[in-house]
Sequence to fold (432 residues):
Amino acid sequence: MMRIARRHAGIVLAGAVALTLAACGSGSTGGGGGTAGSDGGSTDGAGGSAGGGEKVTLRWAMSADSQAEVDVWNHLADMVTEAYPEIEVTFESTPYREYYNKLTAQAASNDLACIAGLQAQRVSDVGSLFVDLAPYFEQTGFDIADYSESIVEGLTSDGAQLAVPYDFGPFVVYVNKDLFDAAGLEQPQPGWTFEEFIAAAEALTKDGTYGWAVNGSPDAWLGWALSVGGVYMADGEPTLTDPGVVDGFGREVSLVTEYGVAQAPDASGQAGGASDLWRNGRAAMYIDGPWQLINARTTVDFEVGLTTLPSVDGTSITTMSGTGFGITSSCKNPDEAWKAISVIIGPEAQQYIADAGRGFPAYTAAQESWYETAGVDGAREAIETALETVDPYPTPAGWQQVSALLVQYSTEAFSGARTPAQVLELVQQQAG
Fold:
């Protein structure tokens, strides 16, 4: 377990913007000749880097699950051209559940975008597709220390900084406040217990509505395991049969099989089903990260609240996630790509992200604005409390496959066809 150091250094945004743009506008380290290729940027002219006056078009790949998200990314792409008129960024969106499969497929066909999003939990699987950004930090005076340390570390591999983070955050509980009010229940506060959670979920389960929305993904239930001392990884390998992991997964399953406060997922694993049930008003609570705020604000017609994962015997440990942007190894205009990234994750862009509520910004100076503009009841207290004991959630190689198998076979546990221990043993065997 690792505590996240939250730095609130006094940074003057305007000065930081000027420093970043001035530094990134200094001499290009590559160049030599303009290229036109499917694996990165392309120039409109016969040759030369963007610094030589040639127009460069860079492809930027990132996941997006709503038009609101696409609008945010397109706005940041436009900001790049405003800062560097010789660079145009074209944004390519893919739904999150398909994004990383598409990324690996594009790599296999030599069709990677020049700039790509990278989630911390995917570093072990696709980190080899990205280059180390540290040389650019040194050449341009970029200060990575202005970004929250935990997610910066999460986007490294073997000492290489593969991406600069734009957002991060702990998994917290999303609450439908209207359903709580209708049931005459007090809004859950950070620090509430598992027993209080069960009592509220039972009171909220009626008339076709459930207190909780379950999810077979470890992102949703691993916090239960960590809170009871579970160890899901050792020596770079998954340890799914650890007693604490069995206990944690069993708690999620018991919400369906024992307490009856959640609906069992269908045979497909109901990918995305938990958030859908919550958004449709059919579940009062579910677990997710702060990055879902923009979707919640634009797709629900009830008041949203946030709180922490309930504690088990006085302990509440949740996991975290975060994403950044890096340069792919096949990019033929890496210097221009770095200039673009320096804008996309720069102070002005992070302020825009905070104001838009897209996600909890990794740039520490913008975090205060996110709290002020989020408009989510209890957001500050829930996130700050969760960050005090958050686990950084490192993952072993192949975790993407492990997660998919857990979602696939979890339906057998939720239906009672197998015990939680049997499902975890099955996945452990296949993962091994």
Summary: The two ends are 25 Å apart (CA to CA).
